[in-house]
Specification:
Layout: E1 13-15, E2 18-20, H1 25-54, H2 59-74, H3 83-92, H4 99-130, H5 145-157, H6 179-190, H7 196-211, H8 213-227, H9 233-242, E3 254-257, H10 268-287, E4 295-296, E5 301-302, E6 314-317, E7 324-327, E8 333-338, E9 341-346, E10 348-349, E11 352-353, H11 356-368, H12 388-398, H13 402-412, E12 417-420, H14 432-444, E13 457-461, E14 467-471, H15 488-503, E15 505-512, H16 517-522, H17 527-543, E16 549-554, E17 563-567, H18 571-580, H19 587-609, H20 615-627, H21 633-638, E18 645-649, E19 671-672, E20 681-688, E21 692-700, H22 708-725
Parallel strand pairs: 8-12, 12-13, 16-18, 18-20
Antiparallel strand pairs: 1-2, 3-14, 3-19, 4-5, 6-7, 8-9, 10-11, 13-14, 15-21, 16-17, 20-21
Helix pairs in contact: 2-4, 3-4, 4-5, 6-7, 8-20, 10-11, 17-18, 17-19, 17-22, 18-19
C-alpha cells in the first residue's frame, strides 16, 4: 500500500513472477542525473566547508600570501627571520629534491603557515571583539565613541561576503554567571510576588545554596563550559524538549500565519505549488550557505546560525524514555496529506527542481483523486498528537519492518510535511475576531489528525488558498501506510486525548490597529518594554494579582545559543501597575514609574542576551545536582514555580527585502503557541511596520479564572492607557 497514493509519474510492471524492471535509456539517464545531483551537492558542501573553514580570510588570500613570500625570497629578502632556512635544512635530509625545488617548497610551507597564523589571529581577535557587549547597555539612541571604534575593528576583522555559517567559530562561548549573582537576581525577581514571610524563607534557602551546594555544582558547569561549545543548549534540548512525555501539539509546537490581508489566489493547488517551490528554493540556498547570517547593530554583530542546520529533512522520533531528532543530509520528496490520504511527491525531474506549475499539477492531481483512505490511514497522524509513550510503543510494534516501515520512512525522511486542508481560514473583515481565532486554532492543532506534529514543520494550505505553518520546537521540525488493523486502538486513543487537549484551548488572535511601534518610539522608550508593561497592567486588571512572567529572549550572540528567560514582572513594573490602578496617582507620577520600569525591563533583557540571565543557569545547576544525586530545596522550589504568563515577541527579520510603507497591506500575522500553565495565559505578539501590532492569546477553557477574549480587551485598554500618559490620543498614531 505504500505506493497506493503516490502522485508521481514513475511506473513499473508487476507480474506473477515478481517485478519486471526493464532497463532503458531513460532509466539509465535518471540514474545518471540522480548521481550527478548528489555529487554536485557534495562538491558544494566541500567548497563551502573550505570557505567557511578559512573565514575571515578567503582561499584566494593564500595565493596572495604565498606569492608575496616567494617574491621577497627572489629579491634576496628573508621575510621569515630564518624560518625558511630552517625548513630548507630539514628538507636537505630527504636528499630527493634539487636546491631550487627545496627553496620553492620551503617558501610554500612558510607562506602557508603564515597564512594559517593570520587566519587564527584574525579569528581569535574577532572572537575577543564579539565578547564585548557594552554596546547593548548604552542609552537608547546613543552610540559612544568606544562603540564606534569597536564596530570599525569588527568590520576590519570580519572579512567580506560572509556565508551563513562563516562566523560560527568566531562567536564567543556562553559564559557561566557567578552563583551569587544569579541568586541575587532571582531573589530580586520574586520579591514582588511573595509575602514578606515567604520571601525571607526563600532568601535563607537561596543564600544557603549560594555558599554551600552552589559552588560545587558551579565547578562542574565551569568544566562543561570549557569543554562543550555551549553549556546550556544540549541539556535544554534533551531535558526540556526531548524527554517531555506529554503531547507536542499545543504544549510544545507553535504556529506561523500567512499575510493578514493579502491573498494572491484562492486556487489551493496554485498557492501550494508556488509556495512549495519557494520553500525549496530557500532550502537550496540554505544547502549552499548562500543565506546571509543575521547581523545586529548596523550589520555588524553576527548571531549564531546553528539552528538553521535542521530546518529541513528533520523529524522527531518517539521513544519510551526520550525522543531523538533524526536529520538526513538530503531529501528528494515531500509528503502531502489530503482527506486522510498520504501522497509521496518527488521534487526533481531530470536532475532539476520541479517548476511551480509542475508542483501545482501534482497538487491538483491529489485534490482531484477520488480514492478513499485505506483502513487505519485517515487518522494516523493522531499518533504524533497524543502522549509520546503510546506512540513510541506503537511505532516499535507495528512500524519496524515491511511496507509500514518504508511508509513511515517516507514521512520521517521527507523534506517537510504538507497538508492540503479542506477548510477555509484567514482574516474576514465582517467577523475579524471569530475568523482569526479559528485560523489560529486550525494552525495550532487542526483536527488533531491532519498535521504530522513530529516533522520539523508542517506546511498547511487551506481550501481558499490561505497558508500557515505548524513547527516542532525541539530542533529550533505521511506515510502511505500498509494495513494498520493492529494499531487502530492506539490511534483512536491518541486522537481522543489529543482532541480533549485541542478542545480545551481558548484562543484569541487579533490585530491592534490603534497605534504601533512608530508612536511608541516617539515616547523614547523600547516598543518591547512598552508591550510587556501593558501585559503586566492587563494581567493585573484581569486576575487582580501579579504572577511570575516568562518572556523569551535569545542568546544567539554566543555560539549555539538558543533562549533565555526575561522575568518581566519586577518590583518596578509592579509599582507602575499599582500606580495605574490607583486614582490618587497623577499622570506625572505614573509616567515617572513607567520610565523606571521600562529601563529596568530593558536592562533585564540585555542581561539575558549577554549571558547573565537567571533561569538557564539555575536549570543547568539543577541538572548537575541530579547527576550528582544531591538534593537542593532551593533549586527544587525554583524550578517548580509555574509561569502563569508566558510571552514572546515574534521578530521581523530580513526587513530590508520588503518596503512595508509602500505595501502596507502585506503585513504578517505572526504566530503563537499554547499556554504553559493550565491556569495561565500564553501571549505572542509581533510589531508589524510602524502602525500595527498583532496579538495571539491562548488559555484553557477548563480553567474558570482565565478567558482569552477578556484578557485581549484588557490588553487593548492597557495599551491605550499607557500611550495617553505621553499626551497622545489613541487616534494620533500619525
Amino acid at each position: 500500500m505504500a505506493e497506493a497514493h503516490q502522485a508521481v509519474a514513475f511506473q513499473f510492471t508487476v507480474t506473477p513472477d515478481g517485478i519486471d524492471l526493464r532497463l532503458s535509456h531513460e532509466a539509465l539517464k535518471q540514474i545518471y542525473l540522480s548521481g550527478l545531483h548528489s555529487w554536485k551537492k557534495k562538491f558544494i558542501r566541500f567548497k563551502n566547508g573550505i570557505i567557511t573553514g578559512v573565514y575571515p580570510a578567503s582561499p584566494s588570500s593564500w595565493l596572495i600570501v604565498v606569492v608575496g613570500v616567494m617574491s621577497t625570497m627572489y629579491a634576496k629578502i628573508d621575510p621569515s627571520l630564518g624560518i625558511i632556512a630552517k625548513i630548507n635544512r630539514t628538507l636537505d635530509t630527504t636528499s630527493c629534491m634539487s636546491s631550487q625545488t627545496k627553496n620553492v617548497v620551503s617558501g610554500l610551507l612558510f607562506g602557508t603557515g603564515l597564512w594559517v597564523a593570520l587566519i587564527i589571529t584574525m579569528r581569535y581577535s574577532l572572537k575577543v571583539l564579539l565578547s564585548y557587549h557594552g554596546w547593548m547597555f548604552a542609552p537608547h539612541g546613543r552610540m559612544s565613541r568606544t562603540t564606534k571604534i569597536w564596530m570599525g575593528m569588527i568590520k576590519v576583522f570580519s572579512g567580506r561576503k560572509p556565508m551563513l555559517y562563516s562566523f560560527q567559530t568566531s562567536l564567543p562561548r556562553l559564559p557561566v554567571p557567578a552563583v551569587q549573582d544569579t541568586v541575587n537576581r532571582y531573589l530580586e525577581s520574586v520579591k514582588p510576588l511573595m509575602k514578606e514571610s515567604d520571601f525571607k524563607r526563600m532568601t535563607v534557602l537561596a543564600q544557603d545554596f549560594a555558599v554551600s551546594l552552589g559552588p560545587k555544582l558551579q565547578w562542574y558547569l565551569k568544566l562543561k563550559s570549557w569543554w562543550a561549545t555551549n553549556y546550556v543548549s544540549d541539556w535544554w534540548e534533551e531535558y526540556i524538549y526531548l524527554r517531555g512525555r506529554g503531547p507536542l501539539m499545543v504544549n510544545s509546537n507553535y504556529y506561523a500565519m500567512d499575510l493578514l490581508y493579502v491573498l494572491p489566489t484562492q486556487m489551493q493547488a496554485a498557492r501550494a505549488g508556488n509556495a512549495i517551490h519557494a520553500i525549496l528554493l530557500y532550502r537550496r540556498r540554505l544547502d549552499r550557505e548562500e543565506i546571509k547570517p543575521i547581523l545586529l547593530l548596523g550589520s555588524t554583530v553576527p548571531l549564531c546560525s546553528a539552528q538553521w542546520e535542521r530546518m529541513f529533512n528533520t523529524s522527531r522520533i518517539p521513544g519510551e524514555e526520550t525522543d531523538a531528532i533524526q536529520h538526513v543530509r538530503d531529501s528528494k520528496h515531500i509528503v502531502v496529506l489530503h482527506r486522510g490520504r498520504y501522497f509521496k511527491v518527488w521534487l526533481y525531474h531530470d536532475g532539476r527542481l520541479l517548476r511551480p506549475r509542475e508542483i501545482e499539477q501534482q497538487m491538483q492531481r491529489i485534490l482531484d483523486d477520488p480514492s478513499e483512505p485505506q483502513p487505519g490511514e485517515a487518522k494516523l497522524a493522531a499518533l504524533t498528537a497524543g502522549e509520546r509513550v503510546p506512540w513510541a510503543k506503537c511505532r516499535q510494534a507495528y512500524f519496524g519492518r515491511g511496507k509500514n516501515k518504508q511508509s513511515l520512512d517516507a514521512v520521517e525522511k521527507a523534506a517537510f510535511f504538507v497538508t492540503l486542508d479542506e477548510t477555509e481560514q484567514g482574516y474576514r473583515q465582517e467577523d475579524p475576531e471569530a475568523s482569526m481565532d479559528s485560523y489560529a486554532k486550525s494552525l495550532l492543532h487542526g483536527r488533531c489528525s491532519d498535521r504530522w506534529f513530529d516533522k520539523s514543520f508542517t506546511f498547511i494550505v487551506f481550501k481558499n488558498g490561505k497558508m500557515g505553518m505548524n513547527a516542532e520546537h525541539s530542533w529550533a521540525d505521511a506515510p502511505i501506510m500498509g494495513h494498520l488493523w493492529e494499531c487502530q486502538e492506539v490511534i483512536e486513543a491518541s486522537l481522543h486525548s489529543a482532541s480533549l487537549l485541542a478542545d480545551d484551548v481558548d484562543f484569541h488572535s487579533f490585530p491592534f490597529h490603534t497605534f504601533g511601534k512608530g508612536l511608541i518610539k516617539k515616547c523614547r522608550t523600547s516598543p518591547d518594554a512598552f508591550v510587556q508593561l501593558a501585559l503586566q497592567l492587563a494581567h493585573y486588571k484581569d486576575m487582580g494579582k501579579f504572577c511570575l512572567t516568562y518572556e523569551a529572549s535569545m542568546t544567539r550572540l554566543f555560539r549555539e545559543g538558543r533562549t533565555e528567560t526575561v522575568r518581566s514582572c519586577s518590583t518596578e513594573s509592579c509599582n507602575f501597575v499599582l500606580a495605574m490602578v490607583d486614582p490618587s496617582q497623577t499622570v506625572e507620577q505614573r509616567l515617572r514609574l513607567f520610565k523606571v520600569a521600562s529601563e529596568k525591563h530593558q536592562h533585564l533583557y540585555r542581561l539575558a542576551m549577554t549571558g547573565s540571565g537567571i533561569d538557564r543557569h539555575l536549570f543547568c545547576l539543577y541538572v548537575v545536582s541530579k547527576y550528582l544525586a544531591v538534593d537542593s530545596p532551593f533549586l527544587k522550589e525554583v524550578l517548580s514555580e509555574p509561569w502563569r504568563l508566558s510571552t514572546s515577541q515574534t521578530p521581523q527579520q530580513q526587513v530590508e527585502l520588503f518596503d512595508l510603507e509602500r505595501n502596507p497591506e502585506y503585513v504578517s500575522s505572526g504566530g503563537g503557541f499554547g499556554p504553559v500553565a493550565d491556569d495561565g495565559y500564553g501571549v505572542s505578539y509581533i510589531l508589524v511596520g510602524e502602525n500595527l501590532i498583532n496579538f495571539h492569546i491562548s488559555s484553557k477553557f477548563s480553567c474558570p479564572e482565565t478567558d482569552s477574549h477578556r484578557f485581549g480587551k484588557h490588553v487593548r485598554q492597557a495599551m491605550t492607557d499607557i500611550i495617553e500618559l505621553f499626551g497622545f490620543s489613541p487616534n494620533s498614531r500619525k
